[in-house]
Amino acid sequence: MTMFLWICVGILSFSLVGFLYRLMKGPSTPDRVIALDSIGVGLITLVGLFSILFDSPFFLEVILLLAIIAYIGTVAFSKFTEKGVIIENDRDTHK
Amino acid sequence: MTEILINSLIILFIAVGVFFILVTAIGLIRLPDVYSRAHAASKSATLGVMSILIGVFLHFWLIEGNFNPRIILGIVFLFITGPVGGHMMAKAAYFSGVPLAKETVRDDMAPLVDREATKKEQL
């Protein structure tokens, strides 16, 4: 079981290297933001596996925090690339 | 005996999850444009992380004996927000004028949206 979990951690770290490649190379901003979102997801899975490996449930708050921060970051970046502002104060932006 | 059954159930869930995360990485590296990459990142990453968290939840519930509702909360939150985030990012990419791949055969939004005009207006 422990051996299997360490192999899974290795494969997930390899996937994180793939996400980092897209984060650095990505031709446009949305590419990088999508890679950043996927890095958040990969970190969540790694935290879950480490909480099994170290036998402690105290890492599990980190899962919720990472999920919320990754989602808010994605939404803020998408509003920014679409309209140039994150919080719309003017209601008539769509015309 | 029960221990072996529980362990194989956990290993099954975690192996499926790790497989889908690896598929996400391959898709992000190899797919041609931002829309197909958003498709890979939102769907298969969400399925993979949900499956791994179900495995973690089963481990803490059936082996350690503490029922941990925070993992359930995380699974539900990721299930809702993963595809929503991917959709918002693909929409923002379309309206900010990121080009489609050469292999694209059909663009249903093209008659409705004048992308060049929005691009110039933003610049």
From TrEMBL, chain A:
This is Na(+)/H(+) antiporter subunit F. It is a multi-pass membrane protein. It is found in: Cell membrane. Keywords: Antiport, Cell membrane, Ion transport, Membrane, Transmembrane, Transmembrane helix, Transport. GO terms for cellular component: plasma membrane. Belongs to the CPA3 antiporters (TC 2.A.63) subunit F family. The chain crosses the membrane at residues 6-24, 33-52, 58-77. The keyword Transmembrane helix applies. It comes from the Bacteria. InterPro entries: MrpF/PhaF-like (IPR007208). One of its GO terms (molecular function) is sodium:proton antiporter activity. Its main location: membrane. It holds the Pfam family MrpF_PhaF.
TrEMBL record, chain B:
InterPro entries: PhaG_MnhG_YufB. The chain crosses the membrane at residues 6-29, 41-61, 67-86. It comes from the Bacteria. It is a multi-pass membrane protein. It comes from Chryseomicrobium excrementi. The keyword Transport applies. GO terms for cellular component: membrane. Signal peptide: none annotated. Its main location: membrane. Keywords: Antiport, Membrane, Transmembrane, Transmembrane helix, Transport. One of its GO terms (molecular function) is sodium:proton antiporter activity. Pfam families: PhaG_MnhG_YufB (PF03334). Belongs to the CPA3 antiporters (TC 2.A.63) subunit G family. It is found in: Membrane. This is Na+/H+ antiporter subunit G.
